[in-house]
Amino acid sequence: MYKASRFSPLTSIIRHTVITLPTPINISTWWNFGSLLGICLASQILSGLILSLHFTAHTDLSFYVVIQSFGDVYYNWWFRALHANGASFFFIGLYLHIARGLYYGSYVFKEVWSIGVVILLLVMASAFLGYVLPWGQMSFWGATVITSLFSALPVVGGDVVVWLWGGFSVDNATLTRFFGLHFVLPFIVAGLVGLHLFFLHDQGSSNPLGVSSDFNKVVFHHYYVLKDLVGACFFIGPLLGLVYFNPWLLGDPENFIEGNPLVTPHHIQPEWYFLFAYAILRAVPNKLGGVVALAAAVLVLFYMPVSPKTSVKGLSFYPWGKILFFSLIGVFFLLTWAGSKPVEEPYVVISQVLSFLYFSYFALIGPITRIQDKLL
C-alpha cells in the first residue's frame, strides 16, 4: 500500500473514489446504472455546449438556425442526434436506477435518495426546457400547455404564468429564458451528483441481499471499473446505433414544422419519458387536481425513506412485495401507452384506473411487507 503522503489532496480524493473505494462483493449489474448515468450526463453537457455555439434563441430564427446548422456546420447533425437520443437514454437509465432503488431498498439512505429525487426533478425540468428550444410545433404547444398548468395555482397562478412567459403568451422572452435555464441546470445537476456520490460513499452501497456487507467488500478498481466499462459498451452501442441509423425514431414528426400559434396540432403530447406523468395529469378532470396529481407522481418518491421499515432491506425476501413491485412496472408501461393516446374514451378511464394503481403501490408496499415480517 502507498502512503497517503505520496498523493496530493485532489489525487487522494480521486483515488478513494474510483480506486480504493470499499464496495460490496455481491452487487449485480443493476448497480451499473449509476456510472452509466454519469456518462450520459457528461455526454449531454458536452454535446449541449457544442450545439449552443450554433443556436440563436429567437422565435423568428431558432427553427431555421437548427435546420441550417445541419448542412452548414460540420457534424452538427451527429451532435444533435446524440443530444436528442442521449436524453432518452438518460431517462431509461434514470428510471432503471430508481426501480433498482425501490426493489432493493436503497431509499433507506435518506440523504442519497432525497438528493437523487431532486436530481430527477431537475433533469425533467431541463429536458422539458430543451424540448422547447427547436421551436417546432410540438415544442411551442408543449410549452404553452405545460406552462399554462401553473395558472391552476390559487391566488398566484396567473402571475406565475406571466412571469414564466415573460409576457402574455409564449413568445421570444419565453424562449430566451428557457434557453438560459436549460444551459444552467445541467451544471447544477452535476454539482448535486457530486453531493449524491459523497453521501453514497459515506454511507456505503447497498447490496442485493439487503444485509450488512461491511465484512465482505473489495476495492472498486479493478473489479467494478471493468464491470462498468462493459456495461457502458452495452449502453453506448444501442445509442450510437440509433444516432447513425434512425436518429429521429423517438422524436415527433410535428416538430419538423415551425411553431405556429394559429395552428394547434391534432394531438399534443410530450416526449415518451413524460407520458406516464402526462397520463396521470389527464386522468383528473379538475385542472388543479391534475396538476397536484402530476407533481405527486414524482414527489411521492420522497415518501419512501419515511415509509414503514422492514426487518430485511429490499424486496428480495418478500413475495407479496415482489408482486406489487412488478405490478408497478407494468402500470408504468401502461401509463406511458395511455399518455400517447388521445383524450377520449376509453383512454381516460384507463388512465384513471392506472393512476389509482400507481399511487396504491406507495401506500401498500410498507404495510404489506410489515405483515409478511409478522407472519415470518
From TrEMBL:
Ranges annotated as spanning the membrane: 36-57, 77-99, 111-133, 139-166, 178-200, 220-245, 288-305, 317-335, 347-368
Record keywords: Electron transport, Heme, Iron, Membrane, Metal-binding, Mitochondrion, Mitochondrion inner membrane, Respiratory chain, Transmembrane, Transmembrane helix, Transport, Ubiquinone
Its membrane topology: Multi-pass membrane protein
A cellular-component GO term for this protein: respiratory chain complex III
InterPro entries xref list: Cyt_b/b6_C, Cyt_b/b6_C_sf, Cyt_b/b6_N, Cytb/b6-like_sf, Cytochrome_b, Cytochrome_b_N_euk/bac, Di-haem_cyt_TM
Cofactor(s) listed in the protein's UniProt record: heme b; heme
UniProt xrefs under CDD domains: Cytochrome_b_N (cd00284)
Subunit organization: The main subunits of complex b-c1 are: cytochrome b, cytochrome c1 and the Rieske protein.
Protein name from the UniProt record: Cytochrome b
Species annotation: Tigriopus californicus
Classification of source organism: Eukaryota, Metazoa, Ecdysozoa, Arthropoda, Crustacea
Gene behind this protein: CYTB
